[in-house]
């Protein structure tokens, strides 16, 4: 375990088993449909890569990069699009892949945006959820794990762009982000 990590919440094996489960569920639900999977960079990159390999049919993949205005650790609800989708999503079945839902503001904004672009359906799969912190009522259609209100890193999640490549999901020591 990295010295800045206080506790491992989910090991690489636990994450992998959960991703497999989510992939199977998504495969069943989208049977016979043409699915467009949209990963939200950069946090969801690893989850996206592993998840699509567990979906038992061909899907299309695209990515968006967004950032919320204001402090990096606190979502403001105003979302800036840094990279938009490559193609129109009109009449497409869309699945948004997120790393973590915190206040819910980012996802609320994104879901509305994609619905306004006349997608046939917009669903969300999130690896993690911090339900205690919610400011808008929104929940993922598919969820990996609920986590307590701590700063989470690893498996794509960062603090100041670090820790993304840890293979497990853990809690960052408070002294690391408080200093
Ligand atoms: P909201 O509040 O809009 O925020 O739901 C979602 C985005 O905030 C980031 N976030 C985190 N990133 N560890 C992280 O590495 C965390 O504990 C954490 N909590 C929120 C993340 O980018 C997410 O997409
Ligand atoms: Mg981040």
TrEMBL record:
Any single biological process term in GO: GMP salvage
Main localisation: cytoplasm
Record-listed E.C. numbers: 2.4.2.8
Known pathway: Purine metabolism; IMP biosynthesis via salvage pathway; IMP from hypoxanthine: step 1/1; Purine metabolism; GMP biosynthesis via salvage pathway; GMP from guanine: step 1/1
Signal peptide start and end residues: none
Record-stated family: Belongs to the purine/pyrimidine phosphoribosyltransferase family.
PANTHER family: HYPOXANTHINE PHOSPHORIBOSYLTRANSFERASE, HYPOXANTHINE-GUANINE PHOSPHORIBOSYLTRANSFERASE
Name this protein carries in UniProt: Hypoxanthine phosphoribosyltransferase
Species the sequence originates in: Tumebacillus algifaecis
Taxonomic path: Bacteria, Bacillati, Bacillota, Bacilli, Bacillales
The encoding gene: hpt
